[in-house]
Design brief:
mainly beta, OB fold (Dihydrolipoamide Acetyltransferase, E2P), eight-stranded mixed sheet, 8 strands
């Protein structure tokens, strides 16, 4: 299985590339007043508005660092696209069943994107 490595603050994660449609650089983000913890806003991508979720904001209360390695991971989630703002998105690696993830926590979109985001998809 191919894994995309990324960080949110001091936590290291890996996500299967299966739900990942693209990894893109930071874009202009429009703020949203949604009440969803971690929802940073939305951005225009190829003519569609996509909600942007910041895992570090949800976990630590501060937004992800803006660095060259900070990227937006566009995920297919619940039949929609959602952007995940992630730090240190620089590593793609292959693991076999039972392999260690080198100190990373393996996650799926359902683990990190709150269900309350479903109400935002019509934005």
């Amino acid at each position: 299985m191919m894994i995309l490595g990324f960080c949110a603050g001091s936590q290291s994660y890996g996500i299967s590339i299966d739900p990942v449609s693209e990894v893109i650089p930071l874009l202009n983000i429009e703020s949203l007043d949604s009440g969803v913890v971690g929802l940073l806003g939305s951005f225009d991508f190829r003519g569609s508005r996509i909600p942007l979720f910041d895992l570090r904001l949800a976990q630590e209360g501060v937004t992800a660092d803006r660095a060259l390695s900070t990227r937006i991971i566009i995920l297919e989630y619940a039949g929609h696209r959602v952007g995940l703002l992630a730090e240190h998105v620089v590593e793609l690696f292959e693991v076999s069943d039972g392999d260690a993830l080198e100190g990373r926590t393996l996650v799926v979109p359902e683990d990190i994107i709150p269900e309350s985001l479903h109400d935002i998809f019509s934005v």
